[in-house]
Design a protein that fits this description.
The complex is a heterodimer of chains A (443) and B (456). Chain A has two helices and 30 strands. Chain A is mainly beta. In chain A, a hairpin with a 5-residue loop joins strand 12 and strand 13 (232-236). Chain B has three domains: 65-166, 3-Layer(aba) Sandwich (D-Maltodextrin-Binding Protein, domain 2), CATH 3.40.190.10; 171-221 and 430-451, Periplasmic binding protein-like II (D-Maltodextrin-Binding Protein, domain 2, 3-Layer(aba) Sandwich), CATH 3.40.190.10; 244-424, Dipeptide-binding Protein, Domain 3 (Dipeptide-binding Protein, domain 3, Roll). The chains are: A mainly beta (443), B alpha+beta (456).
């Protein structure tokens, strides 16, 4: 019988210890963000390692008077450092040591709160008379971190944590709203996993494997599109998958170069919760359900459109697209592979070089002009997302940039059209975090 | 109707930074030009006759892959092995292979090929194929097997009858001129996704000066930076990035200290070395003074070892020995910093009453050596230092920081090695090289890098 299993069928769901037995384990950090909940401050329990280190110190010094110094050489904050220092003092006292001034001490104990990549390392250097200094130490596993909050101005752009995992998230779709999502689907390179919120916790309902013959391209992208007559369509480079219906879902995937939707159903009208496509007047101008062909071995759209935007059926390659309905036409925006923004109105194609990055998404809200474009930009920490309107032909920022804590790998308009899904690779943890980006009107 | 009449698009004041170069998603295409100092004569990862270097490891991992990989926190990740498990108290390890992986010559990866590759690299291991798995059996409890398998030297190689090794990595070999130039091309069907770059051309055996000029003239996109030049390169506005300090610079004695007197003299030498001034003058502030084998960022306790110069104690120890002989101290003549360090150590030794004679001879008593630590995992790194310096791997009795400390102490107690500095691997890159920086362990990960403004 195996004594230790290091991987299970569901990757990253169990710790993969580097060592076993008495060895320290490097835990895989998996954080599940519960929707709408504020992230609490981690209250670490340092009691165990404090006592262990105190015991080790006492075993060297024996009971008696010692002078103690504690120095924080690690990334621990001041508060934790102070808590640990107090805890160590108490633990040393309980171990029979009396803390005194250096001139009264029989030994000095210099404790350093240090760290290595996998754990905190607390080292006590003990000097007694002319003896060689002794060093004792303990390892303390690192606790989980916490997320930063955000700010807001004119229109408020809010980020609502949906899901986090170590595997790259390609898209997340809300399948039921009540009024916040109570059932979501998470797309990654291997599967679509459906989760339901039960008793305040996300419970996995089903994991549907995505099958594909060719290796995935690097910077893999994918999109989930909820459908009216079945649960989901899944678009991946060179692959299309469609879910079945009923409670026991199945996912059927096939090699396909079918174009991906650039307009979600609800933005062009239609019925049901997640309407299928059609050309319906929902705005001053008619929004056509344009689709774009995606390069099967790359990370961009080829530029071919169906149907086209006016006379344009082929544009330069682009990473993402958004649109803004006008009185008589729809202005399309394409984030091209060449780094430029192409503005296409059906008659002209005007390139512009903005400070935007590669991800764009349209949202229709009850705020401001009613239509906003979300665009990513770089900042010192990674990428931020900001809402823009197009009162004329120039973008005007209508929200403060919202820092997402890392590089944005996905930005898709959600099926209901008034929000977007952003997936970010957390710059601290390296894990992927999916957020709903929603616009709130500032009254 | 003419909707657009925008010869010059006016951008809102809210986009004042509009003309700044926009970021894009990764772009495919282009050839990356790299220049490196080391000049490996072979690409076979298991060829132990070749000197270990970051360059050699990185070349290996462009072409070949290991069963597992480790990240900077020491966590193991699947690579060619999808899962792994231990049995019999870590004496039997089973690694289930990823399916549908092919070598660059089109051959499918099998457990038999993987086992043969590991046997070739580790003749003393008991490795065999079992279904779709590779099994390793150890005589004792060995929790380090996964970490060992993540080392580049344990990359899976298919050795063809013509002697050419074939790998499964993100790039395949187009042309290899030993110790001169390596040309690689992206593997279109790489299981992990085709790299963004089309090709990589690596010139090896280039000294730091030539590398710097190549970068300046646009003939190279990625070069190494000498430790003492890091500060200047940063001032000059180069795109400089470094690994964590992963290379140990040390004095290595050619043989064990056979008498107590010799141990005293070696300790005196260790106490006489002025690491701080060497760092500030010779290394221009680069690296970290190292009284320990493992850097503190890796172990968490390196500061426990005394790094300060203690000349009075050094002289006291030296005075306990009669009839001190002159040691010869050697260095790699192609490494300018090694010569300067050797000369400075000799000067420091003289202050302690010792006699060291710098010499570019291989048969010296003591050498200035550069030892690239094997991995960011401190247990693996320490275990591999012993064999590199001609000593058995230190016995590590457990998995605690204290056990590691004891093992390191025992290795230092041999007095074969006097650590001097820990140096990072530092690189300068062209501004067009994107999504690249060296890993904490000096690894390149060029499969994820891309070149900006290359034609798609």
């Amino acid at each position: 019988m195996p004594s230790a299993v290091y991987n299970l069928a569901i990757p990253n769901m169990l710790n993969c210890p580097l060592r076993s037995g008495s060895s320290p384990t490097a835990a895989l950090r998996i954080s599940f963000l519960v929707l709408g909940l504020a992230v609490g401050v981690y209250a670490a329990d340092w009691n165990g390692p404090e006592q262990e280190l105190a015991r080790k110190v006492a075993s060297v010094t024996g009971p008696g008077a010692v002078a103690l110094t504690v120095e924080n050489r690690s990334s621990l904050g001041r508060r934790d450092s102070a808590i640990i220092t107090n805890g160590l003092r108490a633990a040393l006292g309980a171990a029979g040591l009396r803390l005194v001034k250096p001139e009264q001490a029989a030994a000095t104990v210099a404790i350093s709160l240090s760290e290595n990549p996998s754990s905190y390392v607390w080292v006590a250097e003990i000097r007694q008379g002319t003896n060689e200094p002794a060093a004792v130490m303990v390892s303390v596993p690192r606790p989980e971190g916490s997320l930063a909050s955000h700010d807001s101005v004119p229109l408020s752009l809010r980020k609502i944590p949906l899901w986090s995992q170590e595997e790259r998230i390609l898209d997340v779709a809300a399948l039921e709203e009540n009024p916040t999502p109570t059932q979501i689907a998470v797309l990654d390179a291997k599967s679509v996993t459906v989760y339901r919120l039960q008793g305040g916790k996300w419970q996995q309902q089903q994991a549907l494997n995505v099958t594909h013959a060719r290796p995935w391209p690097r910077d893999l992208r994918g999109r989930l599109v909820p459908a009216a007559d079945h649960l989901l369509d899944v678009y991946l480079p060179g692959v299309f998958c469609r879910s079945g219906t009923g409670t026991a879902l199945a996912l059927t995937c096939r090699e396909s170069d079918d174009p991906w939707p650039l307009v979600v159903g609800s933005l062009i009208g239609g019925g049901a919760n997640f309407p299928s496509f059609g050309a319906v007047s929902g705005s001053p101008s008619t929004i056509i359900a344009i689709r774009g062909f995606f390069a099967p071995t790359r990370n961009f759209f080829t530029g071919a459109l169906t149907p086209g935007v006016g006379k344009f059926t082929t544009l330069s390659k682009y990473y993402s697209a958004a649109f803004v309905p006008r009185e008589k036409y729809v202005l399309w925006l394409f984030a091209s592979v060449d780094g430029q923004l192409h503005m296409v109105d059906g008659i002209g194609d005007v390139p512009a070089r903005l400070s935007w990055n590669s991800n764009l998404a349209s949202v229709r809200t009850s705020c401001g002009a009613g239509w906003q474009v979300l665009a990513t930009s770089s900042n010192e920490q990674g990428e931020s997302v900001r809402a823009y309107e197009f009162p004329d032909r120039d973008p005007v920022a209508v929200s403060a940039p919202i820092d997402l804590g890392g590089e944005v790998t996905t930005l898709w308009t959600e099926a209901k059209g008034d929000s977007a899904i952003a997936v970010v690779r957390n710059r601290e943890t390296g894990s992927y975090e999916a957020f709903r980006l929603a616009i709130a009107c500032n009254q | 109707m003419k909707r657009f009449a925008w010869p010059s698009l006016v951008i809102s004041s809210l986009l004042a930074a509009a003309l700044a170069a926009a970021e894009t998603r990764p772009q495919y295409g282009g050839t990356l030009h790299v220049a490196m100092r080391a000049a490996p004569a072979t690409l076979d990862p298991s060829d132990s006759t070749q000197t270990d270097s970051f360059t050699r490891r990185n070349l290996t991992l462009l072409i070949f892959e290991t069963l597992l990989t480790t990240d900077s926190s020491g966590r193991m990740h699947p690579a060619l092995a999808l899962s792994w498990q231990a049995a019999l108290g870590n004496q039997r390890w089973q690694f289930r292979l990823r399916r549908d992986v092919k070598f660059h010559d089109g051959t499918a990866l099998t457990a038999e090929i993987a086992a043969a590759s590991l046997r070739a690299a580790n003749p003393s291991w008991k490795v065999f194929a079992e279904g779709d798995s590779v099994v390793i059996e150890c005589e004792t409890n060995d929790p380090e097997v996964p970490g060992e398998l993540a080392l580049p030297r344990n990359s899976i190689v298919k050795r063809n009858p013509d002697g050419k090794p074939s790998g499964t990595g993100p790039f395949h070999i187009v042309d290899w001129q030993p110790a001169k130039k390596l040309t690689l091309a992206a593997e279109e069907n790489y299981w992990g996704g085709r790299p963004f770059l089309d090709a990589i051309e690596i010139e090896v055996g280039k000294n730091y000066h030539d590398q710097s000029i190549a970068l300046e003239l646009g003939r190279a996109d990625l070069v190494e930076v000498a430790p003492e030049q890091v500060h200047r390169a940063s001032i000059d506005g180069r795109h400089v990035s470094s690994s964590e300090p992963m290379e140990l610079v040390a004095l290595l004695f050619a043989r064990d200290a056979t008498t107590p007197e010799e141990k005293l003299l070696r300790e005196a030498l260790a106490l006489s070395v002025e690491r701080a001034s060497m760092r500030s003058v010779l290394l221009q502030g680069a690296g970290q003074p190292a009284p320990s084998i493992l850097p503190t960022w890796m172990s968490g306790y390196g500061f426990v070892f005394p790094a300060e110069t203690d000349l009075p104690r050094a002289r006291h120890l030296r005075d306990q020995v009669r009839g001190v002989t002159t040691w010869t101290i050697a260095y790699d003549s192609s490494d300018p910093i090694a010569r300067l360090l050797a000369e400075r150590v000799a000067l420091n030794a003289r202050d302690a009453g010792l006699s060291l004679q710098p010499a570019a001879t291989p048969a010296a008593d003591v050498r200035v050596v550069r030892i690239p630590l094997a991995a960011a995992d401190p247990w693996i790194a320490l275990a591999n230092v012993g064999p590199v310096i001609g000593l058995p791997a230190p016995k590590i009795n457990g998995g605690s920081a204290e056990d590691l400390y004891s093992a390191e102490q025992s290795l230092l107690a041999t007095r074969r090695l006097i650590p001097l500095f820990h140096l990072p691997a530092t690189y300068a890159a062209a501004g067009t090289l994107r999504n690249w920086k060296p890993g904490p362990d000096g690894s390149w990960s060029l499969a994820d890098a891309w070149l900006e403004n290359e034609k798609q």
